[in-house]
Amino acid sequence: MQKTILITGGSGGIGRACARLLVENGHRVILVARGEEGLARASQDIPTHQILTIRADVTRAKEVDRMVAEALAWSDRIDVLINNAGAAFTGLVETFPVEQWQRLLDTNLTSVFLCCRALIPVMKRQGEGHIVNMASVASKFTPPEWAPYCATKFGLVGLSRALHEEVRKDGIRVTLLYPGSVDTPLWDTFPNNFKRDAMMSADDVARAVLYTIEQPRHIVVDELSFIQAAGLQ
């Protein structure tokens, strides 16, 4: 069954891989990001009737409301919301810039809250829906110098689990994905001591997303954790 799927953080990496795979499997995609050029690159190989791109900052409530209005003008329903927008910074808490702390909170947590708040009424009217929140293995353990990032991902877990209890009676499913390290442009700003060739690909995550959303209505994959197998490429 064809679904209409809205993906935030859609200009590259996991968002772009998800869009491509989902369209290949017969779904329609609404791709959302702040940068127009990135959206154009992400959608260039996808048939135009299968994809809508929306430029929006999902950390801002008014822009989220506009995004939803534009999406519903293109499609009369939104079956799946994939909260994929994310940011990462590292550093010791004692010297961590407040501006980076706030950006992590806004991008990794507030954006999810705003998108869920805006689309839950839509899904309730439909009688069904599916929210997929992109957590991280950093939602489960706390390496040094990753405290602010981990805080946002731990917060996302709490938000998602409570949300699941709120909306399950309305036919809305909530899934938490916990991927390990994924080789995406997010790592471009980090030191080169990370072994990116040993990381999973964005396509690996896209396949996990496809698996969760194509389960029958009476099944919810509430949590899915996956990492790169040791010694394998």
Rounded to an integer in angstroms, the radius of gyration calculated over CA atoms is 17 Å
Any guess at the CATH architecture?
3-Layer(aba) Sandwich
Q: What is the total number of structural domains?
A: 1
Strand order of the largest sheet: 3-2-1-4-5-6-7
Helical fraction equals: 40-55%
In CATH, what is the class? Alpha Beta
Order of helices and strands: EHEHEHEHEHEHE
Structural class estimated from helices and strands = alpha/beta
At the fold tier of CATH, the topology name is: Rossmann fold
Proportion of residues in β-strands: 15-25%
Largest beta-sheet characterization: 7 strands, parallel
**CATH H-level superfamily title:** NAD(P)-binding Rossmann-like Domain
- The N- to C-terminal Cα distance equals 33 Å
Q: Quickly count the helices.
A: 6
Low-confidence stretches: none
